[in-house]
Amino acid sequence: MLKRSREMLVLWDSSWSDRLWCLFELSAFLKSKADSEHSRLLVTPTFMGPCVVATFLGMFLAVVPLTTFPLDASFLIPMVFVCVFGAFGALCCAHAFRSYFQSVDDLKEKLQSVSLERTRSICCDLNHEGDMMCDREIVKDCITMWFGSQEAFEDCVRSEVLETLTSELEQVFTRPCRIAATGRGLGRARQKTGCSGFA
């Protein structure tokens, strides 16, 4: 399936780099697509979903009072609300972004010193209850077939996987993402209130 797939979507969180299957699947996908121009890797942090939804709702709630209340003394009330709400939202966003980039730095440290033996698999976490087959042994066999040796696999993780992941994760806040989170909210609010001139 990895060889035949043209795209791979990685839903990334801070536990990703500890998971044996995750490391193997991404390494194998990159290795199988090394000479392909048609493959595509999409890396999306799981926190981006709530982040985009919260940003959209925040912008929507901020724009509605600004476009519906008349410009007189009563306008100060919604403005105070928008400022307080905006300040609180900005603090929450700053905390979330700081935690995110800290987790990316942690990822770099983990992958630079990755060891197959220290990775996690669900079967070993459950102590192979009920004669559960060991994923670790299966993945080790796959690694030998795909990479030739455990050392070659670990080198791949420390170089290609590390470079690819950090590049994708550090560019996650792209212009289309920012437009989707903020521009659409503003555009819809203006459409509902009959305002024009939004580009």
Search tags:
6% strand, mainly alpha, two-stranded parallel ribbon, 199 residues, single chain, 64% helix
Which sequence of SSEs, written as H and E, runs from N to C? EHEHHHHHH
Helix content: 55-70%
**DSSP strand count:** 2
The stretches of 5 or more residues where confidence is low (pLDDT under 50) are 185-199
Distance between the termini: 43 Å
Q: How do the strands of the widest beta sheet line up side by side?
A: 1-2
Rough shape?
A: elongated
Query: Helix- and strand-based class?
Result: mainly alpha
pLDDT averaged over residues: 78
The value of Rg in angstroms is 23 Å
Estimate nothing, just give the exact number of structural domains: 1
Number of helical segments?
A: 7
Strand residues, percent: 5-15%
The main β sheet shows up as:
2 strands, parallel
Keywords: Membrane, Transmembrane, Transmembrane helix
What does this structure look like?
It is a single chain. α1 runs parallel beside α5 (135-147), α1 crosses α6 (150-170) and α2 (48-68) runs antiparallel to α3. The protein has helices spanning 20-32, 48-68, 76-112, 122-125, 135-147, 150-170, 175-193, and strands at 7-12, 40-45. It has a two-stranded parallel sheet. It has seven helices and two strands; from the N terminus they run βαβαααααα. The protein has one domain (7-193). β1 (7-12), α1 and β2 form a beta-alpha-beta unit. It has 199 residues and is mainly α. It starts with 6 loop residues before the first strand and ends in a 6-residue tail after the last helix. The model is unreliable at 185-199 (pLDDT under 50).
